[in-house]
Write a structure and sequence with these properties.
With 185 residues, the protein is α/β, with parallel strands linked by helices. It is built from five helices and five strands, in the order βαβαβαβαβα. 35% of the residues are buried.
Length: 185
């Protein structure tokens, strides 16, 4: 059965390594996983005062995309040992109004990316804390911390290291199985 995988990328930079890794991961998806990149860069900052009968149109469209997805892949860089504000804002918008989150119960996986050696460990775990609160069953293993990313990608954004490609292939296979097990519960 085909599943729509909502992909949220926490970096807005045009040449973002995080987006390049997300794009590389998508090339490894089996036919059962249909990627749907969900833009988070145009969302107004969450403000409960705007949660009225007519919330911002960008929120409404975003929430519809969230509801349409069967599972989520989060790709994040690390800013100041945490997730970028744009990604946290997307979670805040998606999870509201309270009790009406389109993410609740949907399986998720996290990949974090950095040019440094620890692969955005802090961002990965801060994001996981939020996903626990949002009641999103998040794949535990394999953990995906992609450090030294600049050396892993060619000029066109393709993976240059077979070991990284194989790791991400295993990550995708495990995520696919995780989605099936989680949705059947």
């Amino acid at each position: 059965m085909s599943r729509t995988i909502g992909i949220l990328v926490g970096s807005l930079r045009t040449e973002s390594y995080t987006r390049k890794i997300a794009n590389a991961i998508v090339t490894l998806f089996p036919p059962s996983m249909q990627p749907q990149f969900i833009d988070i860069g145009q969302l107004p900052l969450y403000n409960a005062d705007l949660e009225t009968e007519s919330p911002p149109a960008a929120w409404v469209a975003f929430r519809e995309q969230i509801r349409a997805a069967d599972a989520f892949l989060f790709a994040t860089p690390e800013y100041n040992r945490s997730v970028p504000g744009v990604l946290k804002n997307a979670l805040d918008v998606a999870s509201r109004p309270s009790g009406h989150s389109g993410m609740t119960g949907k399986p998720a996986a996290v990949v974090s990316v950095s040019t440094g050696s620890i692969g955005a460990f802090g961002a990965n775990h801060h994001l996981r804390q939020s996903l626990v609160y949002l009641d999103m069953p998040t794949m535990l293993q394999p953990e995906a911390y992609i450090g030294g990313v600049a050396k892993l990608l060619g000029p066109d954004g393709t993976l240059t290291q077979d070991s990284t490609r194989e790791f991400l292939r295993k990550f995708v296979q495990t995520f696919d199985a995780w989605i099936e097990r989680t949705i059947r519960r």
